[in-house]
Design brief:
Elements lengths: L2 E3 L4 E3 L9 E10 L10 E8 L11 E2 L5 E2 L4 E3 L13 E6 L9 E8 L2 H4 L6 E10 L5 E6 L9 E10 L2 E11 L2 H8 L5
Parallel strand pairs: 1-11
Antiparallel strand pairs: 2-13, 3-8, 3-10, 4-5, 4-9, 6-7, 7-8, 9-12, 10-11, 12-13
Protein name: Chemical-damaging agent resistance protein C
Family: Belongs to the CAPAB/TerDEXZ family.
InterPro entries: Stress/Tellurium_Resist (IPR051324), TerD (IPR003325)
C-alpha cells in the first residue's frame, strides 16, 4: 500500500524497500473547465542537481525535448499534450543505482506551456499528483496529491528524489512559481 505524503513530508525510499533501484515517477493532472479558447498543455520536467542545488549543464535538464539524462539513468517517456484520460499524464523512468555520484537530487516540476500568452495558471488545474512506482513490480510506493493551493502560479515543483546517507529519499515539495518554466530554469542555474 502506498504512503500518502503531505506537503513538506520526507520519506525514505530505498532503505524501506531493500533492493529497489528502478522507479517510475508518474505525474498527473486535470484541467478545470476553461473557456479561454486555448488548449491546455502541461509539461513535466526533471532537474538533476549537484550539491549546490544547480544543474551542471543543459544535459541535466530533462524534458520533452531532452528525454534522457544522467548517463541514461533518467528517461522522460514523452509529452502528453492534452492530459486527458485516467492515470499518469507523463512518466519518468529512474534507475537510482545508475545515477552518477555528482548528482545529489532529481527535482520534478510541472509547468504550463505558454501559460503567460494563453492567460493560464495552476488555479485552473486540479487533481495534480506525483507518485513513485517500483519499476520492477509496478507497485505504487509513494503518492503525493498536491491539493488546490495554487492560484496565479504557472509552474510547480512537486517533489524531489535525493541522496542521504547512501540511501534515496523523496521530499514532497509542492511549491508554486510564477514565470513558468523559464523561472525554474534560471533558478536551477541554466540560461533560458
Amino acid at each position: 500500500m502506498a504512503i500518502n505524503l503531505s506537503k513538506g513530508q520526507k520519506v525514505d525510499l530505498t532503505k524501506s524497500n531493500p533492493g529497489l533501484s528502478k522507479v517510475i515517477v508518474g505525474l498527473g493532472w486535470d484541467t478545470n473547465k476553461y473557456d479561454g479558447g486555448q488548449d491546455f498543455d502541461l509539461d513535466s520536467s526533471v532537474f538533476l542537481l549537484n550539491t549546490e542545488g544547480k544543474t551542471a549543464s543543459d544535459a541535466d535538464f530533462i524534458f520533452y525535448n531532452n528525454t534522457t539524462g544522467a548517463a541514461g539513468a533518467v528517461e522522460h517517456t514523452g509529452d502528453n499534450k492534452t492530459g486527458e484520460g485516467e492515470g499518469d499524464d507523463e512518466q519518468v523512468n529512474v534507475d537510482l543505482s545508475a545515477i552518477p555520484a555528482a548528482i545529489e537530487k532529481a527535482t520534478f516540476a510541472i509547468t504550463i506551456h505558454d501559460a503567460e500568452s494563453r492567460g493560464q495558471n495552476f488555479g485552473q488545474v486540479s487533481n495534480s499528483y506525483v507518485r513513485i512506482v517500483n519499476g520492477d513490480t509496478n507497485e505504487e510506493l509513494i503518492r503525493y496529491d498536491l491539493g488546490e493551493d495554487f492560484s496565479i502560479e504557472t509552474a510547480v515543483v512537486v517533489g524531489e528524489l535525493y541522496r542521504h546517507g547512501g540511501e534515496w529519499k523523496f521530499n514532497a515539495i509542492g511549491s508554486g512559481y510564477q514565470g513558468g518554466l523559464e523561472s525554474l530554469v534560471k533558478d536551477f542555474g541554466l540560461n533560458s
